[in-house]
Amino acid sequence: MRSLDEFATAKLGELEGSSLRRALVDTTRVTGIWLLRDGRRLLSFSCNDYLNLTHHPAVQNAAVEALQVYGVGAGASRLVTGNHPLLGELELRLARLKGAQASCVFGSGYLANLGIIPALVGPGDLILIDDLSHACLWAGARLSRAAVVPFRHADVGHVGALLAELRGRHQRALIATDGVFSMDGDIAPLHGLAALAHRHDTWLMSDDAHGLGVVGGGRGSNFVQAVPADVPLQMGTLSKALGSYGGYVCASAAVVELIRNRARTAVYSTALPPAMAAAALAALDVIEREPGYAALPLAKARAFARRAGLPEPASPIVPVVLGEAGTALDASRMLADEGFLVVAIRPPTVPAGTARLRLTFTAQHPDDEIERLAELVRSHVLSAATTCATPVQ
Ligand SMILES: *Cc1c(COP(=O)(O)O)cnc(C)c1O
């Protein structure tokens, strides 16, 4: 269709004009930290494989064994024939780690958020969402057809004011937030949000994709403080620190049972492959057995930030906000010439004017390379940046 191609070409032209066109780049990961791209071997600071478990022998072997015995795909949704016993075993382990009664796994974290939120709230209900929340939390919220009202990032006072104003007009209400914010690395004020949620009979949901395995002793963002925050809906992914693939939510037994019945992305989508569940189980073994190992990504992020002259990070994610998309792309290219893969993050993934380098630190990053990277960022990136060179707080 000519109009279709013309539409696509015009759209791409617009994106190109504002440095926002993206391209897929063939990338072959060869270890947990090294990869091949454009004929170069680069040390990656852009993978979310915080514990490098994608390449851990025990995790790989668990997946291979499950593949050979149970096959590659699950063959059907869980309610039909896809409910392999490994899924239930994984759910018990996730619930135990998160201090919840039960959990439900999904095909991915994105699918989890698309399924969970519409299963719990709908037209006539209210969702308050942190305005820097991940795209799939927004997508799930919008899909529910509840009233979606954003609140200023991590601003508990704003949430309180919105609840005081709006709560009475809605039947059910949900507060949705990232636990660890994916592009800024800061941690949500979960205790403050939990207190408000209790006061206003509102349900609190955290998306802890970047918390599980790496903060709070490996248990995630609501375990960072001595007393855990009361978060009745703890969602997350198996695809980051666990090095596998899939998503989950931990909640009470009743809520999980409802989600199993009503979350459309669980009911009408093929079940998580057994091998991914086997890999996630092996990854949980590593995290629970080796807390010192799980603490490494954050320790390395902090060492980097000290050396580069950046504020102390709360998670293994360190943003270097540069402003314009072109500035971030130039910095990324310079670092690639030095052997580092640090992908530039641009709008719409982050708000306009806050394009950035986003660095993720992982357990196996060599300390001397971290030092060299910190020096480059301090002397070549931060010094050249004309706009705010500090994380959005
Ligand atoms: C990556 C991510 C997701 C999506 O998880 P997938 O398993 O990759 O689909 C959801 N929320 C946040 C905050 C994320 O960073």
Structure description:
- The chain folds into two domains: 20-49 and 295-387, Alpha-Beta Complex (Aspartate Aminotransferase, domain 1); 57-289, Type I PLP-dependent aspartate aminotransferase-like (Major domain) (Aspartate Aminotransferase, domain 2, 3-Layer(aba) Sandwich), CATH 3.40.640.
- Helices cover 43% and strands 17% of the residues.
- The chain contains 15 helices and 14 strands.
- The protein is globular.
- A seven-stranded mixed sheet has the order 4-10-9-8-7-5-6, with helices on both faces. The chain has a four-stranded mixed sheet with strand order 1-2-3-12. A three-stranded antiparallel sheet has the order 11-14-13, covered by helices on one side.
- α13 runs parallel beside α15.
- It binds pyridoxal-5'-phosphate.
- The site of pyridoxal-5'-phosphate has 13 residues, from α5.
- Pyridoxal-5'-phosphate binds at residues 108-110, 134, 136, 178, 182, 207, 209-210, 237, 239, 247.
In a nutshell, what does this entry contain?
The protein has helices at 2-17, 57-70, 78-82, 85-98, 109-120, 135-144, 156-166, 190-199, 253-262, 264-267, 274-289, 291-294, 296-308, 325-337, 367-382, and strands at residues 27-29, 34-37, 40-44, 102-106, 126-130, 147-151, 173-178, 203-207, 233-237, 247-251, 317-323, 340-341, 344-345, 355-360. By secondary structure, it is of the alpha/beta class.
